[in-house]
């Protein structure tokens, strides 16, 4: 039996990065975008939860702030799964009878 993470434990990495990294360092979105060499809108979308964290962006945060890119991507994955679980009943699939024989 698989263990499921309760959806309330999933945190979007953007909000977490804003609260735990940018704010304590006193960084504005504009300055952080300059340091990370990304556009301000791209970073703003991430930090506001309107975009997901890419592998490349995770590596940028790792290089600048010493965060593990793998950990940030696991956070993104947990968020994505929690969001999909909220609409799990809407996800349609076909059942293969040959797989049901066990």
Sum this structure up briefly:
Helices cover 54% and strands 0% of the residues. It has 102 residues and is an all-alpha fold. It has a single domain, classed as lambda repressor-like DNA-binding domains (434 Repressor (Amino-terminal Domain)).
Features:
434 Repressor (Amino-terminal Domain), about 100 residues, 5 helices, single chain
Describe this entry's structure for a reader.
The chain contains 5 helices and no strands. With 102 residues, it is mostly helical. It has one domain (11-88): lambda repressor-like DNA-binding domains (434 Repressor (Amino-terminal Domain), Orthogonal Bundle). Helix 2 packs across helix 3 and helix 4 (55-65) crosses helix 5. The model has no long low-confidence stretch (mean pLDDT 92).
Q: What is the oligomeric state here?
A: single chain
CATH superfamily membership, which one?
lambda repressor-like DNA-binding domains
Give average pLDDT, whole number.
92
- Number of alpha- plus pi-helical segments: 5
Secondary structural class: mainly alpha
CATH topology: 434 Repressor (Amino-terminal Domain)
Q: Uncertain regions: pLDDT < 50 for 5+ in a row?
A: none
Gross geometry: elongated
Gyration radius, to the nearest Å? 17 Å
Number of domain modules? 1
User: What is the helix/strand order?
Assistant: HHHHH
Number of strands: 0
Q: Please give the alpha-carbon distance between the first and last residues.
A: 16 Å
CATH class: Mainly Alpha
**Percent in helix:** 40-55%
The CATH architecture is Orthogonal Bundle
What characterizes the major β-sheet? none
Assess the beta-strand content as a share of residues.
under 5%
